[in-house]
């Protein structure tokens, strides 16, 4: 009879620390209640990410018939009945000596095993038992964690398909199909056995608690986005490797900074469309663009050492079109000489001149320099994007702007702005009413934008101005009878 494995005890304080430091998706844990932390482990291409998406009821992990796709730890939350849990997807695990990106992926899987209460060990029914599976089994036995052995891709197969997996020594293998959901609920019931059910009288979330601020990091490959997140949270949470394209998924990391909750999203580096060849990379681009759309604030990470490329401007243009608040983080500033810094500032002004409203923060993610200034700029940009401006103040500011500089004459007359009100936020929209406003040109629109931005401290967010002309009731419309 095999020795029964017990779930190691974890206090509430330790769970809170794990959630904050490891970046797990937020789960509300009532006092005296512990949810399970489940790590999904296995060799490449056995369906770990498909199972992760099934358990979290999401599409957060990119799934494709391509080995080694997942690299970083991807956290999510799920629930079986009334039983919540935290689940982490890992890259293909190689528990022997490895090099390069494979070694970094193995380190991520090792950390997931060390943090886990329960490990779901995923094997492939179609490929059968492999030496790689046996090496992973040795490492899992050494961990002392509770291990649930599942054999994926078993749709249409009989129980005979699981016979050879008894050799791994983890008891009965569970035949499942992560793609179709077969057997998954039964596996999670077994994995979470021994954890308490969530109390019926769970209190609602505190409405006065600050909401988690979504911050997406975007930029070219190898600009230092993953390194920056690791520096902010104080641990090697993401693989930071000197190779473009290391990050593929949009990885979400929850943490607190100076008492405020944030959700950082590390994205794949965006390359020019003509250089995106692999289908996997196209999925990564889609994930990145979605993360930008969903963000409250975007940090555009620029590599100071390699200068401002045209593609940096293209990414900034997309952020601008999406209307998201923006902070530009100029990374690797510590590697620049005084002359190089001067030349870079000129290049920054020339190529990103349309982002004069965004704060430019010089940082070194590797040495953790400038991070306080960066997060302060993020908070200010978010506040500006959601700022509410009363209509009387906007109208008085409009009169002041017109008094300082009137709109240019057009078609024998001069446009006459009459009043202004706020038409939306994130980004702020200012709607101006008046006569003949269709004749106002782009230069005067930019003048008003700069005036309002300075007047109401709207640095860090795009600002949109709409002109609405009052109809002249004495102008005859041939379409009306």
Descriptive terms for the model:
20% strand, six-stranded mixed sheet, disordered N terminus
Question: How would you describe this protein?
Answer:
With 481 residues, the protein is of the alpha/beta class. It is 32% helix and 20% strand. The chain is built from twelve helices and 15 strands. Strand 14, helix 12 and strand 15 (464-469) form a beta-alpha-beta unit. The longest helix has 16 residues, at 100-115. It is elongated and about 90 Å long. The protein starts with 11 loop residues before the first helix and ends in a 12-residue tail after the last strand. 40% of the residues are buried. Mean pLDDT is 77; it is low at 1-33, 62-71, 200-207, 239-248 and 272-283.
Structural class: alpha/beta
User: Strand share of the residues?
Assistant: 15-25%
The dominant shape is elongated
Q: What can be said about the biggest beta sheet? A: 6 strands, mixed
Measured between the Cα atoms of the first and last residue, the distance is 94 Å
Secondary structure: elements and pairs:
Blueprint: H1 12-22, E1 36-42, H2 48-56, E2 74-80, E3 83-89, H3 100-115, E4 118-124, H4 131-143, E5 146-152, E6 174-175, H5 184-191, E7 213-219, H6 225-233, E8 251-257, E9 260-266, H7 279-294, E10 297-303, H8 310-322, E11 325-331, H9 338-351, E12 359-362, H10 371-385, H11 391-404, E13 416-424, E14 429-435, H12 442-455, E15 464-469
Parallel strand pairs: 1-3, 1-4, 4-5, 5-6, 7-9, 7-10, 10-11, 11-12, 14-15
Antiparallel strand pairs: 2-3, 8-9, 13-14
